[in-house]
Structures are given as structure tokens and as C-alpha cells.
Amino acid sequence: MHTAWEEAGWERLGDGVARRRMPGWDETIGVIAGTTGVMIVDTGATLRDGAELRRTIRGVLGRDVTHVALTHPHFDHVLGTAAFAGVEVFGAAGLGDLLRRGKDELRHSAVRHGVDRNAAAEAADLVVAPHHHVHGQLTVELGERQVLLANVGPGHTAHDLAVLVPGRQGAPEIVFCGDLVEESGEPQAGPDALPQQWPGALDRLLALGGEDAVYVPGHGAVVDAAFVHAQRDALAARFGVAPAP
Q: Which residues are in the Metallo-beta-lactamase domain (predicted)?
């Protein structure tokens, strides 16, 4: 039997928690619903993406997104944020300054990856910097549900944020990893990656979620802790970092 989330094109991960793999770049968008708040994790590659996400979430829940968590500063994860007017935006410390300084690079990156030039320019011009900066960990209350935001980077970028949803009634914890973890292909280490520090970021991610958590990559299918351990070791070998103790 399909849930309302699945009928709307989302994958249900738990009670009030779902995610969607977006067309085009396969980036994961997460949603976490509490009694008084709704958080979206990342916002897509364009304002049109963001608006469509906002509409579908409202259609399932009957209420609007109240919080945005941005996992890192790449175009396919942040350029839809302006579609969520009046929403509280969270990101790793330093992300706001980077987005304000880097509008041109965001636009160029989006166009290089196939976003329409006008759509990329519009979204980059309106890019939203976080209102709340996560240095270590920060708890956000969505009514009865608490969500933990953790600055676990640097790694994939200098500003990697993970989102932990505590389990309910024996259900496992759910960790939205951003692009620190990728399942659908080899993790992408672009010019803004810090590869020597990436394995350490995955160690912190695993310490955050634990061995029984469900890990949601920035791209690809949901994975378990064993997959994250294996990706951590592969990255360490690739970049000449010491194995995990």
C-alpha cells in the first residue's frame, strides 16, 4: 500500500521522514515533519525545483516548510532556497559568507552542469545565506521532534552539515549525509574538496549516527554503516590517509 509520500514521488524513510531523488543530478532532498515545524534538507538546483518541492510537501502534509538545512554549498543542493520565503535557514559555519561571495561561481557551476542559463542566473542572484550557523552541533525543535544538525566537515567541501533524525519506538536513527556519502557513483572530489580531511569527516558522521543508523547519501540509494565504513576506507586509500583506528 502506497503512502501519501510515495504517491507524491517521495521515498518514505520513517514516521514523518521522507526523501526524494531529484531528476537531472540525482541529488537527495529530505523532509522531516514534527507537530509544529517541517524541515527540508537541501532545496534543489533551481527556483523552479524549490517551488515544486514546496508545493509537494504542502500537498502531503497540509502545511508549509518552516526550516531549511543546507548540507553543503553546491548548486544542486542550494539554489532552490529562495523559493522558501520566510523560512529559517541553517548551514555549517562559514557557508553564508561563501554563498554571498560565490554567486558567480554557483551560476557558472550550474550552467556547466546543464542548468538553463537564465534559470541559473536568477537562482544565483537570489541565493539565500543561512540565518543560523552551526559550529559544532545544534538541536532544532519541530514540536515534539528534535533534529540534530552537526558540522561534521570539512571533507567533500569546507562546509559539510549532517542532519540526524532520532529514531522513534525502536526505529533506527536516520542521517542525511549530503555529499560526504555517495552511493550512485564514486564520491566526487572537486576543487573545493579537502580530501585529506574527508575520511575524518566520515568518522565523525559514523560516530554521530552509530552502527544501526540509516544513512541517506547526497546521491544514490539509502545505505548502512558498513557502506559508509567502506567508503571511508576507499577515500583514505585514494588520498593516502591513514586507516581508521
A: 26-219
User: Per the structure, how many domains does the chain have?
Assistant: 1
Q: Mark 212-234 as b/e (b = at least 16 C-beta within 10 Å).
A: ebbbbbbbbeebebebbeebbee
* Cell numbers describing residue 191: 576543487
Neighbours of 101 (CB within 10 A): 9
How far apart (Å, rounded) are the C-alpha atoms in residues 86 and 74?
Answer: 22
Residue 232 lies in a domain: yes
- Residue 135's contacts (CB-CB under 8 Å, 6 or more residues apart) are 93, 151
pLDDT digits (tens, 9 = 90+) for 14-67: 999 999 999 999 999 999 999 999 999 999 999 999 999 999 999 999 999 999
Question: Which strand ranges, in their side-by-side order, compose the sheet holding 161-165?
Answer: 137-142, 145-151, 161-165, 174-182, 214-219
Domain-located, residue 47: yes
Q: Which residues of 26-55 are buried (b: 16+ CB within 10 A; e: fewer)?
A: bbbbbbbbbeebbbbbbbbbbbbbbbebbe
Q: Give me the CATH number covering residue 96.
A: 3.60.15.10
Q: Using CA atoms, how far apart are residues 147 and 231, in angstroms rounded to an integer?
A: 25
| pLDDT at position 244 | 66
Distance separating alpha carbons of residues 180 and 157, to the nearest angstrom: 8
pTM: 0.96
